[in-house]
Amino acid sequence: MRITESMITKSLLSSINNNRESMHSIQETITTGKEVDQSSDDPIQFYRANRFRQGIKQNEQYLKNIQNADSWLKSSSFNLESMLSRVMNLRERAIQGANDSFSADDRLQMASGIDNILEDLVNIANESFLDKNIFSGTKTKIDDPFRFDGNSVSYHGNTGKISRRISENLKININVTGQDLLDTDMFNAALSLRTSLINDDTNEISQIIGTIDSVSEKLISLNTGIGTIQQQLELAKNRLDTANMNLTSFLSDTEDVDLAKAITQYNSEEMAYQAALQSTAKILRLNIMDFLK
Questions:
Q1: Which string of b and e fits 239-250 if b means at least 16 CB within 10 Å?
Q2: Could you state, in order of their start, the residue ranges of all structural domains in the chain?
Q3: DSSP symbol at 162
Q4: Given pLDDT bands bounded at 50, 70 and 90, which one contains residue 49?
Q5: Which of 56, 157, 215, 220 is the least crowded, having the fewest Cβ atoms under 10 Å away?
Q6: What are residue 154's DSSP bridge partners?
Q7: In this predicted model, what pLDDT tens digit does every residue of 238-262 receive, in sequence order?
Q8: Who's near 32: CB < 8 A, 6+ residues apart?
Q9: What is the mean pLDDT of the chain?
Q10: Is this structure's pTM higher than 0.85?
């Protein structure tokens, strides 16, 4: 087949266009910093990059769940400590009431102070976090799950557990329910102490001291359980942070451009582009001269 000057010119023009498109593509990778930006760049690497991104996004949600759970647990722990402080006040009153040096009138005076402690305990049990009741089970929006009518304390929440997912296969319960608080007998102990003080019954008051000590142990146990959950959350957080660091590194290896290599490649394409332009211009000038002759 005869190769004409027209065919050579077309070939050179095609080469120029290819060089220009290649330069534009490389320039885009340098600008964005991404070698794989869409599926047409490299379908397999693009799929892998998407998987890494999805993994990072999912882990970030788990980390948010952990942060929320930890805040809830801190609030729960703080309020349990406040309850324990009030129970210690009950114990002090009971020790005073069991002392024979105090009179019946003194004990009546002490009994009136028990109502204040009971009201404090109920108010603490009704505390909320982010407008949600802490100790009402899953009924987090009801008004005053604990109510004190002067003679007894009633609970209007439930025993439902609030959980947070902290990994693909693990959900963790984060709440202490109102029933858990009732099971400590702190309200009954306070009411019994008040009754014994009113009745001037020092023997009964002495026995209630042991009951109050049991209440304290149960509150401490609830708080210890919270501490154990917080340790689990911390371990999970560390694992997720490490996983995201690795996924971010894998994602970078998959889609990020080697800048030095890209710049070298761009310079090479630019040189080829300039050479093609010069060759084409030379041939076009020769063709024009031939035409004029």
A1: ebeebbeebeeb
A2: 61-250, 262-293
A3: P
A4: confident
A5: 220
A6: 147
A7: 999 999 898 888 776 666 554 456 5
A8: 257
A9: 83
A10: no
